[in-house]
Specification:
Layout lengths: L2 E10 L5 H15 L2 E7 L2 E8 L1 H13 L9 E6 L8 E5 L20 E3 L1 H9 L5 E5 L3 H4 L2 E3 L13 H7 L8 E5 L4 H12 L5 E5 L2 H8 L5 E6 L6 E3 L18 E3 L8 E3 L2 H6 L6 H8 L23
Parallel strand pairs: 2-5, 6-10, 7-9, 9-10
Antiparallel strand pairs: 1-3, 1-4, 2-3, 8-11, 11-12, 13-14
The structure holds zinc ion (2 copies).
């Protein structure tokens, strides 16, 4: 099978002119024929790029040669080259590289939690007592198909709601050692800073490299299920546990579907039987609306087998 590679990376670094970096990135990615999504802000860069092994190698070399972007920890996944994982190339300048919705100077990575390697994080969970809590730094729909054992999952659907969750649950963290994690580490950098700045937790730690790096070292460890990702793969299996349940019939399942009703577009877990019965809609209501052509249909997304993912390149 023909394989390509997805690179996931970020770097918090002061960028004086994100607009200029955006133009350079566009030139670089276009020249290398890469697709993906890159966000730039004065606080740094956050990217996912997709291409052949040679193209992605050349990208890493160019990044490493740039004065701002040396020593980036690129996480890679080999994927089946027959699929499209990104709808083209999207490069944007925003206020933040993850949407926490807070001033990048007031809540910065300088205040972030202590980094723990996957091995140290694993050990910390193994030794965890009454005063340790594991906190998911992601959205609830991501945790629905994969999470660390006994983790607290904030009931949020957007990262920008994380600070509000912390504010409303301060007592939960009082005098606790908090072990935080997210997909690749980027969100914890500032989410852990927010929690630390509250001055309520005894200590705040963050998993370096996120679930991605942990799963490479501990595929059968404390993380169970799938690692949710923001490309066409949707979720990458770490082990065989199925954490999710069908939103319609509660069968054990971890396959996401987007409602075919373009005006609903709900992202939900649906078992094959329910998805078939409701013809890719999320409910009887949406099924009727689509059947009676009262709403436009969303373009159907191709289902991609993510089984090749997370094989490290040596
Ligand atoms: Zn079902
Ligand atoms: Zn719907």
């Amino acid at each position: 099978m023909n394989t390509k590679r997805i690179l996931l990376y970020y770097k918090y670094v002061s960028i004086a002119d994100p607009q200029a970096i955006m133009l350079w990135q566009r030139e670089l990615c276009t020249a290398l024929n890469l697709s993906g999504r890159i966000v730039l802000a004065t606080e740094g860069i956050n990217g996912t790029v997709y291409g052949t092994i040679e193209q992605t190698n050349a990208y890493m070399v160019a990044m490493n040669d740039h004065e701002l972007f040396g020593n980036i920890d690129f996480k890679d996944s080999l994927v089946n080259a027959e699929h499209e994982y990104f709808p083209g190339l999207q490069i944007k300048v925003k206020d933040e590289i993850t949407n926490l919705g807070l001033d990048v100077n007031e809540v910065s990575t300088a205040h972030g939690g202590k980094h723990l390697s996957p091995a140290a994080f694993h050990e910390a969970i193994a030794q965890a007592g009454q005063n340790t809590i594991v906190l998911d730094g992601r959205n609830q729909y991501e945790a629905a198909v994969g999470a660390f054992k006994d983790a607290i999952v904030p009931p949020i659907d957007h990262f920008r709601d994380f600070p509000g969750y912390i504010d409303q649950n301060l007592d939960l963290f009082k005098d606790k050692e908090v072990l935080m994690y997210c997909t690749g580490g980027i969100r914890c950098e500032r989410a852990s800073a927010y929690l630390k700045l509250k001055g309520i937790a005894k200590e705040v730690y963050q998993l370096e490299g996120g679930i991605h790096r942990y799963a490479e070292q501990f595929p059968d460890g404390f993380f169970r299920g799938k690692n949710y990702v923001f490309d066409a793969r949707i979720a990458v299996p770490v082990n065989d546990d199925i954490l999710g349940t069908c939103a319609l019939c509660s069968t054990s399942c971890d396959e996401f579907t987007n409602c075919l009703n373009a005006k609903c577009n709900k992202h939900f877990i649906g078992c094959p039987a329910c998805v078939k019965t409701l013809e890719n809609t999320c409910s009887e209501v949406c099924f009727q609306l689509v059947t009676e052509e009262k709403v436009p249909k969303r373009p159907m997304r191709q289902r991609i087998d993510p089984s090749l993912n997370n094989q490290p390149i040596l």
